[in-house]
DNA sequence: GTCTATAGAGGGATAGAC
DNA sequence: GTCTATCCCTCTATAGAC
């Protein structure tokens, strides 16, 4: 073997990281295998040493991105203050303007919804783990899904807007509502 | 002329309607010109009699779909009860399961965000009209953006889930939160 | 494991007949 | 205005050299 045994695992990890960023920025279906490999500093021929098909890579990207989102919620299992800080960062202009570095849900959820059953099953499991984490940090566990939906929807819509002012107006209104206790 | 003068306008309207449905179901970029035309009962050669390019059709589809969404809010300019009914229908399992017949925001907002400036400018104008309508029907106008973001995010995420139970749990929680007055 | 080269399918767009 | 036929490009995936 001309490559050390860890080479493949490392190459795959780097490939998945750059592919995740590229997929979030330009869309997964809209990005060709050639571009994914070029971004990782390789050519398309090497792709199939790591994934059986482009669809298989989508599964891996989604799994990796959702695990990362879960990890970003913090290690503390149920800290309301940490959740509040997370939501503030999530609903920031910086997050809206840099999809490649952000959460995969506003960028890729529509494509996941159109994907095959295995992808949606993995997605569902990851989302339930995320939901449990958020619910544990909420005064009312029933607030978890509404909070998640609101945050994802806000970033999705802000990204589709043209002016920074409109984006900021939307994000500000949602930030205030997310921080408002329910009756 | 072998076709009556209204023929082109009618053909274009039918084409836009079927293209909107197809784009919402399968994604706009992922659907080829051939399939858009086949769905309208024609062939790809006729496409360019109506649109200068595929990108031009995207603009037209987005404009048409957003106008339709606005119209579905009802003619009554500021009726809180009509808004509540609209939100209930929006957050239904039927809406989640039939993207082709539903709102274009959960389906196409990510693609709009990746689109060229003219598309995002049209989007922004339409969204501000929609926001004004919703704000007029809310007790607190500041609730308009949060409510819209929440509804769009909920449908987007529910569509990506695999099981009907999970979809219903998410939708139910968001419906309850949307109907809860803020302090 | 990664490369170059290529097969085979499908994409957007145009030309010319009717 | 719509058709068929076609150009050229890009896409996914495979083959064979190293």
Structural features, described:
The structure is a homodimer of 183-residue chains. Chain A is built from 9 helices and no strands. By secondary structure, chain A is mostly helical. In chain A, helix 1 crosses helix 3. The model of chain A has no long low-confidence stretch (mean pLDDT 95). At the A-B interface, helix 6, helix 7, helix 8 and helix 9 of A face helix 6, helix 7, helix 8 and helix 9 of B. The structure holds a DNA duplex (18 and 18 nucleotides).
Q: Enumerate the spans of chain A where pLDDT stays under 50 for 5 or more consecutive residues.
A: none
Q: Work out the strand percent of chain A.
A: under 5%
Described by strand count, sense and barrel closure, the largest sheet of chain A is:
none
- Overall form of chain A: globular
Please work out how many helical segments of chain A DSSP would assign. Answer: 9
How far is the first residue's CA from the last residue's CA of chain A? Answer: 66 Å
Oligomeric form: homodimer
Helix content of chain A: 55-70%
**Structural class, from helix and strand content of chain A?**
mainly alpha
Task: Give, in order, the helices and strands of chain A.
Answer: HHHHHHHHH
Q: Care to count the β-strands of chain A?
A: 0
Specify Rg of chain A, calculated over alpha carbons: 18 Å
What is the residue-averaged pLDDT of chain A? 95
